[in-house]
Amino acid sequence: MLKTRITELFGIEHPILQGGMQWVGRAELVSAVANAGALGFLTALTQPTKEIQRCRDLTDKPFGVNLTVFPTLNPPPYAEYRRVIIESGVKIVETAAGVKPQEHIDDFKNNGLRVIHKCTSVRHALSAQRMGVDAISIDGFECAGHPGEDDIPGLVLIPAAASRIAIPLVASGGFADGRGLAAALALGAEGINMGTRFCATQEAPIHEAFKQQMVANDERATDLIFRTYRNTARVARNAISQQVLAMESERKPFTDVAALVRGARGREGLERGDPDHGIWTAGMVQGLIEDIPSVRELVERIVREAHSLIRGRLAEMADTKSAPSKGRAA
Ligand SMILES: Cc1cc2nc3c(=O)[nH]c(=O)nc-3n(C[C@H](O)[C@H](O)[C@H](O)COP(=O)(O)O)c2cc1C
Q1: What is the pLDDT of residue 76?
Q2: Probe ligand 1: pick from 196, 210, 289, max atoms within 8 Å of CB?
């Protein structure tokens, strides 16, 4: 129903992506996204490689793998991850948070994969374009996870990027519904990428308590932690994120907060259903989440709503002959 260069590039039905999500981007969710006609990404760093096979067993539609490159003292063996991805025959990769992304991009491109690079600034988008990626996903300040240090919200970042880059652009951060998709298209993007919204679906492999918490939370329920370490992360506000902020305000070094924010601790909380046990990632868009639909219902609803907004309310406003529409909804 909505054709863009993104649907063409990836051979998908709808211009909607589910970005890589540590612990959450597993075969159950990614295959449901693929079967709904959108594009999901498994997460290479936290998911065993058997997820690729599991995902294949659950869908014959395209899906991808996210490779997140974090600045760390002891980097994981990225070259091995790339090998596994390439040899698995997966055709689409999302690279993110790149420290020296060129070697990853070259390897994937030389082996015939399509690469979408996720970044948080126009300058990084331009440099990824120069490095030869096929598309850019631009994450605004609203996003869950790492928004970078520039703090530019999507309303400015998306059109700023769209004006400067030639390859297809996906808008990311703060999207949950058809209004967002229509807005992203108007701002110059050719699709949307969602993280938090896909966590609150029936197929997301996380405890129900987190999904209910996202429905209950409003748009203020996030904290920006790690700002003092210049590695800002937007997470759901909870007892631990507040504790981290208190320690940061006392200028405590990262080594002091490390035990609180350990990935394993966050994962334990996710499995146990305790939203206050560890840090968990979620965005401001929680304020737009009101239910826990199936992935298919969600994707179809978003596309239907965007389509009827474009054809209905917005078209009516542009049509000088018709009376002004009273309704606000699509
Ligand atoms: C639970 C969770 C885990 C995430 N983990 C990663 C990750 O490992 N790598 C990555 O590139 N992005 C990660 N993200 C960011 C998403 O891929 C996406 O860019 C972001 O969620 C978009 O903002 P939104 O949540 O407002 O839709 C994560 C997001 C969430 C909600």
Answers
A1: 85
A2: 196
* Separation between Cα atoms, residue 280 and residue 24, nearest integer Å: 11
* DSSP symbols for 171-197: EESS--SHHHHHHHHHTT-S-EEESHH
Mean pLDDT (whole number) for 144-172: 98
Q: How many whole angstroms from 101 Cα to the centroid of ligand 1?
A: 18
Ligand 1 atom nearest the C-alpha of 176 is 27
Pocket test for ligand 1, best of 143, 146, 213 (most atoms within 8 A of CB): 143
Strand partners of residue 158: none
Residue of the CA atom closest to atom 3 of ligand 1? 21
Q: Give 100: exposed, middle or buried? Use CB within 10 Å, 0-12, 13-18, 19+.
A: exposed
How far apart CA 246 and CA 24 sit, in angstroms, is 28
Reported as a single tens digit per residue, the pLDDT across 181-214 is 999 999 999 999 999 999 999 999 999 999 999 9
CA distances from 237 to 4, 135, 195, 265 (A): 36, 32, 17, 16
